[in-house]
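step: validate -> pass
step: tokenize input -> pass
step: predict -> running
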Amino acid sequence: MKNPFLYRERSYPLKFIVDIHSYCNARCTMCPYPKYSRKQSQGQMDQSLYEAIVNELADIGEKNNFRPLLTYCYMGEPFMAEGLDRYVRYALERNVNVYLNTNASLMTAEKVDALLATGFEGKIHISFHGVTPEVYERITGLDYEVTLKHTLYLIEKYRPQNILIRGVDDHWPNGERQKWFEFWREKNVQLEYLPPISRCGGISRLLPKRLGNKKSVRLYGCRCHLPLVEMIILFDGRVVMCCEDMGRELILGDVSKDGIAGVWNGPIRRDAVRRLYSGKPTPKSFLCSRCEMALGAGGLVKSVAQAAWRKISIKKE
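step: predict -> pass
step: emit ->
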């Protein structure tokens, strides 16, 4: 039987993460960036490549009657880019929606004002791991007061309902979670509280225990089905499997050579998706076998039931 979620497959992606650069100023304890940045090539995307990518995804959206969704730097900090507002403006002018993920430490008032002047109306997700200075600084390596100042300025100037504060609990002390919720709820922003994950084994201490001593696992898809809808493009044009592939283990192709459509419909990506949704024993060497988002048999049944319930609920409405 064909995995039911494979019927969601399209010949084009809906969402994009584009590395306009590959740098981050944080050193979060649950992120493999500090380790990988010493081993991987790093750089800034050529403006011509960025424009070609945005132009192609705009064409894809126009031909298929939808507005693509774009964000930047899947393992980096977008506000490290010089003139982030210019990148955003270029995308918005071509009918591409933009949202941002940031740690906010470099999100100065001047940068916020420049961003909003572009007509930006997207979501801004801010990583704020802990609410007391000692916890936040232990986890991120950033200055608590500086980041808080920038975040509060954004809340004052922008729609709170379009701001999401994300907290990853990496050994928060007793009481920190309650303080975190109480502090941010007063600001009327959205909240997302999460446990840390291993990023496909990039942080070995967080590797899923379900693997045990098994040589292989059966995979029935992705909990968020990201490989069916999202493309992650590195600063040099190469494409990785998904946003969890911070080790750049599975390179699907190069959009600077084959374009978005060529890579998305290419044999490497199609084979990887089939393996992820096959339900067959898959060795640990395949990165999805080491990912918390991968579905086992029980997860597949639960996901199918949830999807069916959502359809019923929509029809009732």
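step: describe -> The chain is about 35% helix and 15% strand.
step: cleanup -> pass
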